[in-house]
Amino acid sequence: MLTIALPKGRIAEETLEKFEKAFNEKFVFEDRKLILEKAGFTFLNVRNQDVPTYVMHGAADLGVVGLDVLAEKEYDLIKLLDLNLGKCKVAIGLKAGTQLDWTKSEIKVATKHVNIAKGFFEKKAMAVDIVKLYGSIELAPLVGLSDCIVDIVETGATMKQNGLEVGDTIMETSAHLIANKNSFYIKKEEILNIKEKIQEVL
Ligand code: PRP
C-alpha cells in the first residue's frame, strides 16, 4: 500500500493518466473527494505547495511536485524522477516596454516564489523588497504594487494579456516524483518498481 500526494488540477490528472497506463487501472477522483483508493494506491489531492509537507511528514510516501516548489524551501526528500509534466519556467515579468532600473537602491518584487526571487536579486547584489502574493501576481506592476514580478510562465499568455513582458528566466521547472526518505528505505522495492513502470510510459 502506497500513498501518493498529487497537486490539485492538471498535473494530478496528467499524473493519474501515467499511472493508468503503467498499471492498467482507471484512477479518477470522484467529484469533490480528496482521497482515491484503488489497486493498492491511495492518492491524495492536495495544494501544490503542500505536496512536500505531506511527503516530509510521511503522510504520503510519494508526491508529485514542481521543482519551483522544491526550490522555495529546504526539504529533506528524495527526488526520484522527472515526469516531464507541467514544464514551465520561473521568470521576471515587467510592464511591456520597460526595463528594470538597476540603479535604484532597491527593487520591489511581487511574487509567490519569495526565496527564488530573493536568490536571483541577491546574486546580482541588488537589494529587494519582496511583496508576497498568493495569486494573480501579474496585477502587481500594473497598479504600482511592485516594479516587477517573479512568476511561472508557461505560454506567456497571462503576462501578455495583462500588458507585461517576460524578462530573465530564473529557472526551468517541471513536475518531479518525490519520495519520503523513510518510505524509500522501508518500501524500496515497491517504490523503485513504480518509478520504473512510470518511466516506461513517459
Ligand atoms: C500560473 C502563473 C501564471 C500562469 C502562467 O498560474 O501564476 O498566472 O500560470 O501561464 P501562461 O504563461 O501559460 O499564461 P496558475 O494557473 O498555476 O495559477 P496560480 O496563480 O493559482 O498558481
Protein described:
The protein has 202 residues and is α/β, with parallel strands linked by helices. It has 2 domains: 2-86 and 174-201, D-Maltodextrin-Binding Protein, domain 2, CATH 3.40.190; 88-172, D-Maltodextrin-Binding Protein, domain 2 (3-Layer(aba) Sandwich). It has helices at residues 10-23, 51-56, 67-72, 114-123, 139-142, 157-161, 181-186, 188-201; strands at 2-7, 35-38, 41-46, 62-66, 78-95, 107-111, 128-132, 148-153, 164-179. The protein has a 9-stranded mixed beta sheet with strand order 2-3-1-4-9-5-8-6-7, with helices on both faces. Helix 4 links the parallel strand 6 and strand 7 (128-132). Helix 1 (10-23) crosses helix 8. It starts with a strand and ends with a helix. The model has no long low-confidence stretch (mean pLDDT 97).
- Separation of the first and last Cα atoms: 23 Å
Radius of gyration: 19 Å
Order of helices and strands: EHEEHEHEEHEHEHEHH
Helical element count? 8
Structural class: alpha/beta
Q: What is the overall silhouette?
A: elongated
Which small-molecule ligands are present, each listed once? Answer: 1-O-pyrophosphono-5-O-phosphono-alpha-D-ribofuranose
> What's the arrangement of strands in the largest beta sheet?
2-3-1-4-9-5-8-6-7
Return the domain count: 2
Chain oligomer state: single chain
The CATH superfamily title of the largest domain: Periplasmic binding protein-like II
Q: What is the mean predicted local confidence, pLDDT?
A: 97
Q: What would CATH call the class of the largest domain? A: Alpha Beta
Question: Strand fraction band?
Answer: 35-45%
Number of strands: 9
Q: Which residue ranges are poorly predicted, with pLDDT under 50 across at least 5 consecutive positions?
A: none
CATH topology of the largest domain: D-Maltodextrin-Binding Protein, domain 2
Instruction: Give the CATH architecture of the largest domain.
Output: 3-Layer(aba) Sandwich
Largest sheet: 9 strands, mixed
Helix content: 25-40%
